[in-house]
Design brief:
It contains 14 helices and twelve strands. The chain has 370 residues and is of the alpha/beta class. The chain has a seven-stranded parallel β-sheet, with helices on both faces.
């Protein structure tokens, strides 16, 4: 029996990892394999899945792909991973989280290539789920999408085109963060989504909470129908143009901030509330405050929305006996263990367009305390 692949796409910060966590919590994960793609050099999304869901480490195979997008620079490697999982007798279903700037048309084209090379390939694309941030669509993209207005720059046009591609090229739209808008605003978002995507089911949700039965066990993704659409052809042409020119994906770049020393909570909160650069599209990572040194804090920023949330405890906050036991059984933790701070670390990936990396790093340095 061929193994179904569920592809989860969506723009930066839309809630793809949150959806993955919810799906993992509410279904049998036996036989499930995950591929998680992050454009940065640190795969924060994979770390979130591992930290927040014990099933990932116990019942599932997890493949991390980073430093690029599976729609272009990592496509060949991605399809090789798909073939390996298809041949693995312990794997029954594959779930893929694409990076926030991945074009689903490029990924689907890779699947077509595998099927053409091997008609008996033991895998098929079941569905493409596009996670859409309702608040962000309303705040940042609504007028451009409603009026088809010209963008202020080529980069802005590329980002808008990418959002449209992700809306058009899917079988299900998961409209997330609906609690941030009122009914009239949500109806506006629905109307503009339907102007680009006539047939996909639109499911409203909050914090990625959705019944797994509405995501899985769908009819196979209809390649012929999608390929016959001009939107698909335009998406592929944009991908090819960028690949030929060597331009970075949609003008977006990223960098990783790392420092083992703690942040001062007051200073860090002042930075994100008063001095946070508007050029940053997305940020995500783990951090710690000197004032709350037992807590692993998850920092997330998507557009105008910023959250700092305690998600677990640092190993260094456990008793000496527990620490000794964990280090003995986890060589990776032991290898990176710091004599003073243990496993505590600030590690945040920042993604943006036209941002000043040096200035951001200097601001973060001001938030660090001894």
């Amino acid at each position: 029996m061929k193994k179904p692949v569920t592809l989860i796409t969506g723009y930066l910060g839309s809630g793809k990892t949150t959806l993955m966590n919810e799906l993992l919590r509410h279904q049998d994960t036996k036989g499930l394999a995950l591929i998680v793609n992050d454009m940065g050099s640190v795969n924060v999304d994979a770390e979130i899945l591992k930290k927040n869901n014990n099933k990932v480490s116990c019942d599932t195979k997890l493949i991390e792909m980073q430093n690029g997008c599976i729609c272009c620079t990592l496509l060949v490697e991605f399809m090789e991973k798909i073939k390996e999982l298809a041949a693995d007798s312990t794997v029954e279903r594959i779930m893929v989280e694409a990076s926030g700037i991945s074009n689903p048309a490029g990924i689907a084209n890779g699947f077509l290539g595998v099927i053409e090379d091997d008609p008996d390939a033991n895998v098929y694309l079941e569905s493409v789920i596009s996670v859409v941030d309702a608040d962000r669509i309303h705040t940042e993209f609504l007028e451009k999408l409603k009026t088809k207005a010209d963008c202020d720059s080529d980069e802005e046009a590329d980002i808008t085109n990418l959002v449209v591609d992700q809306i058009e090229f899917c079988s299900v739209i998961l409209l997330n963060k609906c609690d941030l808008l009122n009914r009239a605003q949500l109806d506006e978002v629905h109307k503009v989504l339907r102007s680009f995507q006539k047939e996909a089911e639109i499911i409203e949700c909050i914090h990625g909470k959705v019944e797994p039965s509405r995501i899985f066990n769908q009819p196979p993704f209809d390649f012929d129908k999608v390929m016959s659409s001009s939107a698909f052809q335009q998406a592929l042409e944009r991908e090819q143009d960028m690949a030929d020119s060597g331009v970075d994906e949609y003008g977006v770049s990223s960098f990783v901030y790392e420092d083992i020393r703690p942040f001062d909570r007051e200073k860090f909160m002042h930075f994100i509330e008063k001095e946070y650069p508007k050029e940053l599209i997305r940020a995500k990572g783990y951090m710690w405050f000197k004032q709350e040194d037992a807590d692993v804090q998850l920092f997330e920023q998507a557009g105008r929305n910023v959250m700092v949330t305690p998600v677990s405890n640092w190993v260094a906050a456990f008793s000496k006996e527990e620490i000794d036991d964990i280090l003995e059984n986890n060589p990776d933790i032991k290898e990176s263990w710091h004599s003073e701070y243990g496993d505590r670390l600030n590690q945040i990936v920042f993604i943006g367009k036209g941002h000043n990396k040096s200035k951001i790093l200097a601001k973060l340095a001001e938030c660090v305390t001894a």
